[in-house]
Design brief:
Blueprint lengths: L1 E10 L2 E11 L4 E5 L6 H9 L5 E9 L2 E2 L5 H6 L2 E3 L7 E5 H15 L7 H14 L10 E2 L5 H15 L3 E6 L6 H14 L5 E6 L4 H4 L4 E6 L2 E6 L2 H9 L8
Parallel strand pairs: 3-10, 3-11, 6-9, 9-10
Antiparallel strand pairs: 1-2, 1-4, 4-5, 7-8, 11-12
Bound molecules: adenosine-5'-diphosphate (ADP) and magnesium ion (2 copies).
The site of adenosine-5'-diphosphate has 12 residues, from strand 2 and helix 1.
């Protein structure tokens, strides 16, 4: 379970998150929507530990640990997948090797045995197949020359291999491309189960046609101002965010 309590964060002098409270139980998928500039991306960056964001108050407890105290790689070892952890282009580095290194780093931290090349490839091929991807993906250099859709696919492949307990996704750019949305939805839906939860931050209601959330939250001016069932997303689509501003 993820429990965010009274989270305040700022960029420079500007307070962006102004007391976010949010609980995501195991097995549930929660969506965060909200007007442009509300702080949605800031929330995902703070949870991922990106530089430049200062947490001034509050905590984010996952499995009994305040993840805000952990280095990004330790957050991954704790079972959290953060979408922009591995977005870089790495010329000369094969995707399979890169994924195996990332996976083994997490396994080491968890005290699990590392996977050798053969064992890894077996898992990777199964994940590639489950995501309806081409196998040559594993041979390409990491993200080099990948289209937007291919980068998304690769991200979902990383997620499938790492088998996180909690995925935090901020779908900022992919909203324009319906194929990319479906790739993300397939990746999340494939992991659905009692031990998996996700926080899907989206600027676009239509992602939620493909990932049906258990709960929808509205973030406005740095606070959750409303939470409700999946139908809330449709209501927001029809009526907008007017009248939902934080006090
Ligand atoms: P959302 O994802 O909901 O559209 P953001 O988290 O991107 O919102 O932005 C929240 C607020 O923080 C906005 O007012 C934005 O202008 C401001 N902001 C975002 N990034 C920076 C930055 N690097 N420096 C200063 N202000 C920023
Ligand atoms: Mg924005
Ligand atoms: Mg954003």
């Amino acid at each position: 379970m993820l429990e965010i309590k009274n989270l305040h964060a700022r960029i420079g002098e500007k307070e962006i998150l102004r007391g976010v409270n949010l609980v995501v139980p195991d097995g549930e998928i929660h969506a965060i929507m909200g007007p442009n500039g509300a702080g949605k991306s800031t929330l995902s960056y703070v949870l991922s530990g990106r530089d430049g964001y200062e947490v001034t108050e509050g905590e984010a407890i996952y499995d009994g640990q305040n993840i805000l105290d952990l280095a990004p790689e330790d957050r991954a070892a704790a079972g959290i997948f953060l979408a922009f952890q591995y977005p870089v282009e790495l010329p000369g580095v094969g995707n399979a090797n890169f994924l195996r290194t990332a996976l083994n780093a997490i396994r080491r931290k968890r005290g699990e045995e590392e996977l050798d090349a053969v064992a890894f490839l077996k898992q990777a091929r199964a994940a590639v197949k489950s995501l309806h991807m081409k196998e040559d993906f594993l041979k390409r250099n990491v993200n080099v020359g990948f289209s937007g859709g291919e980068k998304k696919r690769n991200e979902m492949l990383q997620m499938a291999l790492l088998q996180p307990g909690l995925a935090i996704l901020d779908e900022t750019d992919s909203g324009l491309d319906i194929d990319a949305l479906k790739i993300v939805a397939d990746g999340v839906n494939a992991l659905r189960g009692p031990k998996f939860s996700a926080l899907v931050i989206t600027h676009y209601q239509r992602l939620l046609d493909h990932i049906v959330p258990d709960v929808v939250h509205v973030l406005s001016a740095g606070r959750i101002v409303r939470s409700g069932p999946k139908e809330l997303a449709l209501e927001l689509e029809a009526h907008g965010y007017a009248g939902l501003e934080a006090a």
